[in-house]
Amino acid sequence: MSARSQVGLREVARGWRWGARPPLPASVAADIPVPSAREFPTAWARSPAAVRARALVQAAGLKPLVWSQVAPQVSGLDALDGMSGPVLFVANHSSHLDTALILCSLPPAWRSRTAVTAAADYFFDSWLRAVSTAFVFATVPIDRKGGASAATPGALLSEHWNLVVFPEGTRSSDGQMGRFRLGAAQLATAFDVPIVPVGIRGGFAAMPRGRSWPAPGRRTVAVRFGHPMRARGGEDVRALTARLTREVTRLLREDETTWWESLRRSPAPAAPAAPVARWRRVWEAYEPVGSSRARSPWD
Questions:
Q1: I want to staple 166 with a disulfide (CB 3.0 to 4.6 A). Which of 22, 93, 98, 144 is the partner?
Q2: Residue ranges per domain, the chain?
Q3: How far is CA 265 from CA 49, 69, 181, 241, 254, in A?
Q4: Which helix (H) or strand (E) holds 110?
Q5: Would you tell me how many other CB atoms lie within 10 Å of the CB of residue 1?
Q6: Is this structure's pTM higher than 0.85?
Q7: Using one digit for the tens of pLDDT, what is the confidence trace for 16-63?
Q8: For residue 59, what are the β-bridge partners?
Q9: In b/e form, how buried is each residue of 131-151, taking b as 16+ CB within 10 angstroms?
Q10: pLDDT tens digits for 120-132?
Q11: Which H/E stretch holds residue 281?
Q12: Per the CATH hierarchy, to which homologous superfamily does domain 43-284 belong?
């Protein structure tokens, strides 16, 4: 087969619709009604019976299972002393382990009143996944593009439930923290609740995107809780989001170095000013947690 024929076949394959849904003429796209957002009912998962059953499942099943696959190092829980909720636990997101790590790190009294915001288009796209995650993690659906389902987290805060929020919107593809969206700051401002920042380091190496089970070797993962934050007078949601980004970055740096070093060094921005090769970012994410860190040659 000639090189020109090969190129032609590749072009045909690239343009072919491999899915079952037929193509739609652009001229009629504007006349097609937009399907209304459907919110999966999750109130049953917060009933007294479900709360008791979930507490048993998390304490006797989930925590022993996760702790057997990774070696968590939890610090900063004293930040919750004297608090009663509701609060927003806002963390970086690089692994499916993150939710279980945060919930299982919390004291039982906090854990039993903590729900998790989860992407409606991923965790609630099938009945089985929706029911299982709502029961085990007390998840509530949110629309990552904004929409009607985003009202549920506010209702939970009004009912004195704590919420776990991952403002990046999705897991990191290379282990590095991405840009924070404004949703967490909007909730904190609208409902006047404090934010407890959480830095999770080592989750990507333990269970990166694409894996369905933690990597062998029981890798160490650090979960560091920071001091509560509130919106300052005159601070808008963008400024609060920027401050929250810096604090989560500082928590990651504190675990990597020391508390003093994390304050002395200015936190790196979420998006680097100059392009950085992906292999470097992944290499950095696989750095062992808890070991003394030699300075990276590209720092």
A1: 93
A2: 43-284
A3: 48, 33, 24, 20, 10
A4: helix 108-111
A5: 7
A6: no
A7: 444 445 555 666 656 666 545 456 789 999 999 999 999 999 999 999
A8: none
A9: eebbbbbbbbbbbbeeeebbe
A10: 877 888 888 999 9
A11: helix 278-285
A12: Glycerol-3-phosphate (1)-acyltransferase (3.40.1130.10)
